[in-house]
Specification:
heterodimer; A: alpha/beta; Rossmann fold; eleven-stranded mixed sheet; two-stranded antiparallel ribbon; 11 helices; 29% helix; B: Protein Transport Mog1p, Chain A; seven-stranded antiparallel sheet; 4 helices; 30% helix; globular
Amino acid sequence: MQNRREFVKEMVAGAAVLGTGTQFAWGQGKAAEKSKVVIVRDAKLRTPGPAPDEKRVAALLDHAMQTYFDAQNPVQPWKQVVRPGQVVGLKLNSLGRMLSPSVALVATICERLQQAGIKAGDIIVWDRGSRELEAAGFKLSNAPGAVRFLGSDTAGYEDAAVSYGSVTTRLCKIFTQCDVVINMPVLKNHNIVGVTMAMKNMYGVINNPSTMHGSACNPYIADLNMVPQIRQRVRFVVGDMMTAVYEGGPSYRPEYAWNEDGLVVGEDQVAIDTISAQIVERKRAEKGLQTLAQKGTPLTYLATAADAQHRLGTNDPTRIALIEQRIA
Amino acid sequence: MKKWMRCKGVAIAALLTLVVVSGVGCKKKLTNPFPASGAVAGWDKGEKTQSYDAANLYEYIDGGAEQYISAGVLGVSTSDYKFQGNLEATVDVYTMKTADGAKTIFDADPPTADSKSVQLGDAARLYGQSVVFRKGPTLVRITAFEAAPGEGDALMALAHGIEGKL
């Protein structure tokens, strides 16, 4: 029986590097360097069954994180994202059982965080709706000393409002408990904003997301991510692209879903959203559909997030160091 | 507060049931659109039927409610089903203000290479793992969560069972 370490070693050894990018140390030199985005795919992710294999999901995550941080083992990257003593939140984007960060992915991150020195009781996995979390396969739990799985709908929202630009909102109490938040979106089309991935996932940490969908969520998405409490906490993105939706989103629509069988990781949420939009556009072209702009859903929020007022990241492909790898 | 929310939820469910039952402008008196377990061969209905109105639709289709609201949705009722104890599916019954609203939502979905138009209601389309149809101001979407042999026939049978109750 192959153990996980052997499995990862084998997978990494067999990796074919399709691209390279500029590397920079965590939190240093971001302005001068390109924004690194790492995407790793596994063509055998669903071997032997139709669902992603748990071990391969873990290997996919480790490979992506080690590539991003140029690390020699699966735990080292997480020590650059979190520190012992911090409360770490994993903000999922759960839209039911078929369109949610996978349980195996979340379990592996929780394991790595603990290996990096975070206490189990200091890890909170959450999303806006308890029902969606349960439908996605997560068992709600608030047991002391264990990883918590909670919905904002039961935890409630802060009384005090926060604001930036067009946004005035109240943050959920789970979010404000966290020192660091790992943003865990899923790749999908959205019938208003075109594509949602990292930045729009923050709509799930506030009490009034329904008021921020006008004008294709622009400038709301960018403004929301500028709220200091959000900007300070959201440190890293692990995006689930195993199952994605190119049309009819954001709900799961099997007729418009495909298996991208990959993960994307990075710090620059604007860059990740830009690359994600390109992936959805490619799939739409392959299916003979209009571009998102032709459909009337251009991703205007990306330019706003990257503009001089916001500077949340870059939407300029020439300033994104995209590293794409394929394992197996 | 929780008690008030629960009361509100019950009131919404009752209102939507009334809307569906009254047929929103149709003269025909209608019944609950969800076939009971066994009413359609092989299909068992889940215990719960949940309902949302336009104001809280985002709780059900997070981020996707606006499309329905702009088309004049009154609400949606949803229930899970299971076919022969294995294949799981969700049935969503959207009640719009007008038949045009249902058409707007239906027409927004492009056909796929493996989809086909089928005879059901005013218009219907069968995809690999789902079927969507509209009838008057009602739009019904049945979504299965996995591919299975004979799935299309099973979905169509359930769709006919629902359409007959509209």
